[in-house]
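so the lab meeting is tmrw and i was supposed to have these ready like two days ago... anyway. pasting both below. for each one the top line is the aa sequence and the line under it is the structure tokens. i havent really looked at them closely yet so no promises
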Amino acid sequence: MFKETVQLEKLRQKIEDTSYEAGDKTDYLSYGKPSPEQAKQTQALIDKLNAETKSAQSELKQILETLRTQNPQIIEEWVNYHVSLLNNIINENSAHKDAKTRKFVAQETLEKWEKVRAGEMDYVNINWHFLKDYKDYVRKINEKSEISKVVQSATNQATSVQKKEEKKPFWKFW
């Protein structure tokens, strides 16, 4: 994975986090019954977070415009990464009561990523309720900064399991 792809994802997550926090603080103002001083401080924080979100969105837009002309393969990799994860969700067989809704939300999110690919959108928010596992997975990859570290870890675990299995007597098949 290109380091620029990871940087794009970090910026997308920054936008997601700051807008979520601003919304959370807005809920606090609406339902938390803060004192006048707390309300004033919270409103100042909301304004700061909204400004950070707008700034990060502007930065993302500028980066994507540059990449579209200079390194479009980075955008392709970023979009393809998300599309592949969403396709897994869309194709999963689940009897869970929310499976249809989950697939619908995944399909909507996939369509937004295709708009990013086409240059019609710059930012895609990931639903924290129906796509929580996808959102968490993307964050774990990002925390490691490189997908190769995650792949190496998985390879090491598989090798470790194989070695444990090799130590079993031949007649133990369980």
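ok protien two:
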Amino acid sequence: MGTEQAAPSDSGRSKRGLASASEETRKQVARKGGVAPHQKRGLAAANEETRARVAKAGGEARANDREGLREAGKRGGEAVRERYGIDFYREIGEKGGGTVKERYGTGFYSEIGKRGGDIVKQERGSEYYSTIGKKGGEARTAANVNVNTVSPEEQTTMTESAGGTAATAPKEVSTA
């Protein structure tokens, strides 16, 4: 628009926006308005390059809102759980794992496990593994000591809650 100073109108107020532009600028804007697509408004009326630039900027702004993304993901997961149940996640996890195994082979899991382990070692130090190994050994020893005082049903429940399966539960040792 023009670089002219906004002049007071007859009513004593300053002209703003297009009203403060020169006569020539107002005519140019009016001409462009006469040939603009009237059915499209806003971003839809913009050219493809402008729409792409605006969409990219919006996507980047959204991606920077980590808390908003986390909250949206949580709400989505809760909605899926309500609609399909918790077993749905197990089913899709098994399908996904099977697809990855078919595509990349079983060595893929070894490789990503090793990479993850190396990252943890870098971040926490090699003594971290000694510490968690010791804790795991102590927990297993405590479970084996208590095995004679716990019923087989309780053993299964304890093992499953620790992330194992009933097949890995300590067996009762006969002393006879």
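from a quick look at the 2nd one: Residues 66-84 form the longest helix (19 residues). Helices lie at 23-35, 48-63, 66-84, 87-104, 107-124, 127-145, 152-161. will dig more after coffe
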